[in-house]
From TrEMBL:
Record protein name field: Sugar acetyltransferase
CDD domains, per the entry: LbH_MAT_like
Pfam families to which the protein is assigned, alphabetical: Hexapep, Hexapep_2
Recorded family membership: Belongs to the transferase hexapeptide repeat family.
Entry keyword Transferase: yes
């Protein structure tokens, strides 16, 4: 149909790449980067850096600061590494510092932010209280499942798996699987013992991950002896 062909033309020519005028507004867009069209909200582009060969899905919001036209200083606010894939409808909302490593993949509708509204004053509406920033770091090779929420202050190690729908805050080690609300470690790799609990013969489905999230946290080294 002509309508479908026309939409395909619009979609293809609406993509943002390093060679397009919209791409040149970014602090850095690496070789091979493509941001799908239609986009979500994009602003603060001079403070957004995206590494080579990263693909950003349609309807994805990437923002630095509260709105367009702000001077956010000399340093980048949102940094996304090389060869990442950001799922459709996701939001990456930075105000102080969000660092996403190389080879990070997300499912659709993932939300990552380094800012929350404060609520310390019980007499002031939460939305009118001064927000609190805390940097976010997502290590190389992580996978974030659909609908995961990454809150301020989160630091994920390398190759961390975040289950779909998890609400993540805090520090998590390399080679961990985290799930639940709030998220906690449900599986972890130790060089001496391998995966604990052992990997199943078949991949875990969402129901199994949800059941694992209800288990007590795995003790850290030394805790069992104390």
């Amino acid at each position: 149909m002509a309508l479908h062909r026309g939409w395909e033309w619009v979609r293809r020519h609406g993509e943002i790449t390093p060679s397009t005028p919209a791409g040149r507004r970014f602090g850095h867009l690496g070789k091979g980067v493509c941001i799908g069209f239609p986009t979500g909200a994009l602003f603060g582009e001079p403070w957004i850096h995206i590494g080579d060969d990263t693909l950003v899905g349609v309807h994805v919001t990437i923002s630095a600061g509260f709105g367009p036209g702000l001077d956010l200083g000399p340093d980048p606010i949102v940094k996304i590494g090389k060869a990442c894939s950001i799922g459709r409808g996701s939001h990456i909302v930075g105000h102080e510092s969000i660092e996403i490593g190389d080879d990070v993949f997300t499912g659709p509708y993932v939300y990552i932010t380094d800012q929350n509204h404060g609520y310390a004053d019980p007499d002031v509406p939460v939305g009118r209280q001064w927000p609190v920033n805390d940097a976010v770091v997502i290590g190389d090779g992580c996978w974030l499942g659909a609908g995961a929420i990454v809150l301020p202050g989160t630091r994920l190690g390398r190759n961390v798996v975040v289950a779909g729908g998890a609400v993540v805050r805090g520090e998590f080690p390399d080679h961990a699987v985290i799930a639940g609300v709030p998220a906690k470690v449900v599986r972890r790799y130790e060089p001496e013992t391998g995966w604990r609990p052992p990997l199943p013969e078949a991949p875990l489905d969402e129901a199994t991950l949800a059941a694992l999230a209800k288990l007590p946290p795995i003790p850290k080294r030394g805790e069992l002896a104390s």
